[in-house]
């Protein structure tokens, strides 16, 4: 695919001014198309629970084909955000591997903003054999979001995590921790948008039959 652009193994690449302009513009458009494909998925069946903002992050078959067609959008979405794909990463086997659920927007449909504060309640009896986790990512670099607090992630394995009497867990995301919630707080960075993966390690039946559902991320202020 690079040959028509003048790029060939072992040969010098000497684009003229017109090619430089075209390729520079194409790189910008390509990055924007990657973001659109990843963060505003147009793949049928990407919605996890009707009426909620959570989407399946990984919908790519291992051979990257489905029903006889190449998974261009599915592949573009997943590999814009992630590297590699295995059976264990597809989240399809009871009690095995991990599930990747993705959210880029709050319950109102607004993009998640590092300058704003959010709350999310994880319902009790999360359907996992091992543990669940939230990891926040910079939506430009797609790398893990790093805040003054450190890596922006939290999991059910965290020492000192506050758990409600009914087994639910309240999580808070934002630039500043709310009062008396520091153990369940994940810091974000003003000026940076973010998205998150909710991972279930060793998913149980309640995930697959959807009798357990994760709440949307809600704006606090």
Class by alpha and beta content? alpha+beta
CATH architecture of the domain at 46-58 and 94-219: Sandwich
Q: Beta-strand level of the residues, as a percent range?
A: 25-35%
Order of helices and strands: HEEEHEEEEEEEEEHE
Q: Mean of the pLDDT scores? A: 95
In short:
The protein is α+β, with helices and mostly antiparallel strands. The chain is built from three helices and 13 strands. It has a domain at 46-58 and 94-219: Jelly Rolls (Sandwich).
Task: Tell me what the structure shows.
With 221 residues, the protein is of the alpha+beta class. It has a domain at 46-58 and 94-219: Sandwich (Jelly Rolls). It contains three helices and 13 strands. It has helices at residues 17-39, 72-81, 205-208; strands at 55-56, 65-66, 69-70, 98-103, 118-122, 128-138, 146-147, 150-151, 153-155, 169-174, 185-187, 194-203, 218-219. It has a five-stranded antiparallel β-sheet with strand order 1-4-12-6-9. Helix 1 packs across helix 2 (72-81). The mean pLDDT is 95.
């Amino acid at each position: 695919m690079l040959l028509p652009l003048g790029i060939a193994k072992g040969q010098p690449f000497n684009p003229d001014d017109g090619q430089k302009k075209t390729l520079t513009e194409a790189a910008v458009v390509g990055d924007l198309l990657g973001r659109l494909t990843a963060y505003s998925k147009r793949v049928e069946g990407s919605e996890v629970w009707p009426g909620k903002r959570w989407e399946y992050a990984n919908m790519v078959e291992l051979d990257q084909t489905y029903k006889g067609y190449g998974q261009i959008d599915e592949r573009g979405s997943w590999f814009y955000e992630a590297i590699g794909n295995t059976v264990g990463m597809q989240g399809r086997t009871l009690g095995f591997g991990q599930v990747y659920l993705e959210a880029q927007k709050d319950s109102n449909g607004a993009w998640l903003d590092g300058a704003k504060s959010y709350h999310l309640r994880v319902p009790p009896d999360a359907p996992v054999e091992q543990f669940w986790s939230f990891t926040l990512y910079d939506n430009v670099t797609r790398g893990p979001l790093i805040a003054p607090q450190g890596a922006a992630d939290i999991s059910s394995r965290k020492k000192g995590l506050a758990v409600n009497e009914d087994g639910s867990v309240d999580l808070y995301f934002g630039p500043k921790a709310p009062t008396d919630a520091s153990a369940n707080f994940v810091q974000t960075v003003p000026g940076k948008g973010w998205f998150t993966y909710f991972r279930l390690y060793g998913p149980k039946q309640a995930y697959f039959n959807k009798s357990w559902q994760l709440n949307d991320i809600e704006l606090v202020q």
